[in-house]
Amino acid sequence: AQSVTQLGSHVSVSEGALVLLRCNYSSSVPPYLFWYVQYPKQVRQLLLKYTSAATLGIGINGFEAEFKKSETSFHLSKPSAHMSDAAEYFCAVALWGNEKLTFGTGTRLTIIP
Amino acid sequence: NAGVTQTPKFQVLKTGQSMTLQCAQDMNHEYMSWYRQDPGMGLRLIHYSVGAGITDQGEVPNGYNVSRSTTEDFPLRLLSAAPSQTSVYFCASSSDSGSTYNEQFFGPGTRLTVL
Fold it and tell me: Do B42 and A46 touch (CB under 8 A)?
């Protein structure tokens, strides 16, 4: 079984500041890891997907996520926040051969001008 | 492409009523699924389908039925609505059969209230 925990249901950062959204997972085997994003008035869409042996997943709009096996974490970051990054972000995990994509509860990111 | 479409956007039902939530996709995706989202919880998988004529239960299937007669459509039926089914329902599709680890394309959701 797998589970996902997102720390912080609401995060606010100033425009130009570092964005860091935290995600921890539990899984008995190496999982596939995802970040999805839902911008205002849009549908949920894939931001990035991590499936390789490398530690970094590269996503759209300058986001990246670092996989740390020892910490079972997959935190999402962006060096400099933009107003257009305001959205709700969801971490998700899937296991190969398991028809279940497990989502976290989401983090709503607000950008302060 | 319209992507994944869902109808209706909003629905209010009385306890015991039945209804069908519609989901359609025009991307020729084999894999389709239904989720519900409740406050403070992540999406929970209700039912899924890996192709026309094939469906299976997810995490929270009780009270819901599905069928998949075509690749494009995957309706979700509530047989006898209960207040516990008040939720936002999302349909999603993916290009490969049995691939939740491929990109999921989501619909806009249906907000259902059961009184």
Answer: no
Could you tell me the strand order of the sheet in which A64-68 lies? A3-7, A19-26, A73-78, A64-68, A56-58
What counts of helices (H) and strands (E) characterise chain A?
0, 11
Smallest Cα distance from B33 to chain A, Å: 10
Instruction: Give the tokens for residue B34.
Output: 């239904």
The predicted-structure confidence for A28-38, as pLDDT tens digits, reads as follows 777 788 999 99
**Chain A residue with the nearest C-alpha to that of B37:** A105
Render pLDDT for B69-104 as a digit per residue (tens, 0 to 9). Answer: 999 999 999 999 999 999 999 999 998 655 556 789
Q: How far, in Å, are A67, B50, B100, B110, B113 from residue A49 at the CA level?
A: 11, 21, 12, 26, 33
The residue to which tokens 């509860």 are assigned: A105
